[in-house]
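User: Structure with adenosine-5'-diphosphate, tokens only please.
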Amino acid sequence: MADAFKARYSSGAQIRTGKIRSAAACAAAAVIVSRRLKVRSQKCTARKILLEFQEACYTPLARLRQVVDAMAVEMHAGLVSEGGSKLKMLPTYIDRLPDGHERGLYYAVDLGGTNFRVLRVQLGGLEGRVIKQEYEEVAIPPELMLGTSEQLFDFIAKELVSFVAREGQDFRLHAGQNREIGFTFSFPVKQTAVNSGTLLQWTKGFKVNDAVGEDVVAALQRGIERRGYKMRIAALVNDTVGTLAGGRYWNNDVMIGVILGTGTNACYVERAEAVSKWAGDIPKSGEMVINMEWGNFWSSHLPRTYVDESLDNESLNPGEYGFEKMISGMYLGDCVRRVLVRMAQEACIFGTPVPHKLLEAFSLMTPDMSKMHHDDSSDLKVVAEVLKRVYGIQNTTVGIRKIVVAVCDTVCQRGARLAAAGIVGILKKIGRDGSAANGVIKRNTFEQSDMNGFHDEVPVHYTSGGRTVVAMDGGLYEHYTKFRNYMQEAVVELLGEGSKNVVIELSKDGSGIGAALLAASHAEYVIS
Ligand SMILES: Nc1ncnc2c1ncn2[C@@H]1O[C@H](COP(=O)(O)OP(=O)(O)O)[C@@H](O)[C@H]1O
Ligand SMILES: O=P(O)(O)OC[C@H]1O[C@@H](O)[C@H](O)[C@@H](O)[C@@H]1O
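Assistant:
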């Protein structure tokens, strides 16, 4: 009996166990299936968000051409009158660029959006050129970006004075020469002379409120004198102007200077007579370098998305520098982050809860975006490393990592193609884009509505030019390979055959040397 019972029991138990096992197996299978379905639906949602964002960022050639035209039209409008365009088109009082004859010892201080540099250069004229140069670079203490004007300019003066004190024997002043400085200031300034100008507003991460409206040269001069030093600031230049000057020093075909760094901007050599709003004398050279402040460019043709809206609303300068916020290094990483936040919230791509740091503005810096974007490993291990290091996110699937890379690519490509359209817009304005000899560009109603009553046709004088060199600088252009490639591809797409006459060359740290060269060419004491 017992045996039979055992047998029955065991078989019954076996059956029961079997049933339990199969029920458990079914339950487990059901869990796995539901998990898989959930993961699949999350990925579908993430893909839907990605596709929607890609469509909104799309910059087909036709759209880029509209941006090109809008840039050229707004440049003209900004030259006609103050406030005629969102493009400030600031005369720089630089009406002649370095030509290689410069001699002597000159200094430069260069305040950018992330870095601050002091530099000295010994110039030896055409035969000697740059005999020797030295520079030091320091990261700008973040607290100074939000402090007072005196704190900021004292910091600059302190670094300069300390650098001068370590001049060494290799650098020497000519008899009778005082130390003169080129001051590169990478913010919008209304110049009142070649070596004076008032700050119009802060951009990027700066908000030193009591400096707005201040003459930044006088502010720095006070800082230097507070340290018992007497040095003359011979030129105040925007970093694009320094880059243009540094490029022209070596190559007469340089006509445009562009910065793609923390921020972005462009300057170019304009015909002085085209600057209708200029009340001063027409310079002997017949030319004037214009600081466009193109970061503030705006056109209805720009592909603005919900990401741009939210980024702008939360920025230090809402409603301004919309073009810069779409293409420059300070903002690209945050554009990516904002898309990932939506995917994390709506598709749980990083599990629940959403990693807290992911909600923090600027937590994804563009260098880390660039690292993920350039990850060419099969399992995207670099993407995994960045997500873990920055956000503590682990165990992402390769599929999710691919979506992250696709978001980086979309933001990068849009920025790069828009930068290309900006450059071609300048070429078009100065008649060096290989297009027709003369022409007009119709301004569409939107542009007209946001401009105070301009003609709906804007004459733009083209002359077919020779080779044009664009001197380019900035950490975004220099280090973000895919951005640089996308930009150059778009320039070729836009110019076609004409692109053969356009060269974009990296003029690394040209703004520092350029400022020193402009100090030399505008020095009080001229060395023959
Ligand atoms: N490896 C990188 N990949 C992408 N962008 C980078 C990289 N390194 C630096 N950048 C961008 O370049 C900017 C710094 O630009 P840079 O011209 O060196 O300084 P500044 O903007 O102060 O003149 C950084 O804010 C960052 O956005
Ligand atoms: O060299 P940076 O810091 O990237 O600056 C580039 C541009 O940044 C913009 O925000 C400024 O308004 C410009 O004046 C400047 O040229």
